[in-house]
Amino acid sequence: MTDVFPAQWQETLTGEMLLLSLLGQIAYKFPDNKERGWFQSLIDEDVFAEAPFSAERDDVKAGLEVLQKWVEAGLSDETLKLMQVDYTSLFIGSADIIAPPWGSVYLSDSRLMFQEKTLEVRNWYRRFGLQSEKLYSEPDDHIGLELAFLAHLAKLGVQAIDEEDQEQFVALLDAQRNFMSEHILRWAPRFCEKVIAGAKTDLYRGMALLIRGALFDLAELLGLEITEFSK
């Protein structure tokens, strides 16, 4: 809510930044041997013991329980292979891909990528000083990138609080609200449903539960009516 004194938002925005940044990376990184150390660090640091944001949300609680099973199983060679198979079938497989991670697939009647909605998202990134590392070779509206963008806006919001810049703080909350209502909330809930139903590993099922819970919680904090986006 933009009429709340900024200091009351510092903890909320910091938690949002940490959680959405983490979820964005899980959704974006292919779990190969190059990234194995990063995934192992999630286990070693027990990052799923609690959530820094939306901790009271039912989806988040359920997601943490699922992710703890992944943590307890450990990252063996077999587990890593199962993660690779799951990631491929869910997100980068053939024509029967289970849960396409690009917003344009859900928002375009033709289900094609690099369409108008993709360009709109790219312009959002540029407006706030970001650019996809794989510009022109991968759609900008990947779920991992959109979550990272929200985390970036939250980080800028924290900076505005630190600098006591009320005008910038309000503008950044408005940016989050508009980006969510215009883009990520219009497709991410369907993406999460597909992942929850189709995932074969606890990592990606838990990830989807956390994403859905965190986005709906953030939407409510920003004054959005989530029933509009829940299907």
Describe this structure in words.
This protein is mainly alpha-helical and 231 residues long. The chain contains ten helices and no strands. Helix content is 63%, strand content 0%. It has helices at 10-28, 36-44, 58-73, 77-92, 103-107, 116-127, 143-162, 166-182, 188-198, 202-221. The mean pLDDT is 90. Helix 1 (10-28) runs antiparallel to helix 7, helix 3 (58-73) packs antiparallel against helix 10 (202-221) and helix 7 (143-162) packs antiparallel against helix 8 (166-182). The chain has one domain (6-228): TorD-like, CATH 1.10.3480. It is globular, with a radius of gyration of 17 Å.
What is the mean predicted local confidence, pLDDT? 90
Q: How much strand?
A: under 5%
Sketch the major β-sheet: none
> How many helical stretches?
10
What's the overall geometry?
globular
Low-confidence spans: pLDDT under 50, at least 5 residues?
none
Order of helices and strands: HHHHHHHHHH
Distance between the termini: 24 Å
Helical content class: 55-70%
Number of strands: 0
| Class computed from helices, strands and strand pairing | mainly alpha
| Number of individual domains | 1
What is the CATH topology assignment? Answer: TorD-like
The radius of gyration is: 17 Å
CATH fourth-tier homologous superfamily: TorD-like
In short:
The chain is mostly helical and 231 residues long.
Topology:
Layout: H1 10-28, H2 36-44, H3 58-73, H4 77-92, H5 103-107, H6 116-127, H7 143-162, H8 166-182, H9 188-198, H10 202-221
Helix pairs in contact: 1-7, 1-10, 3-10, 7-8, 9-10
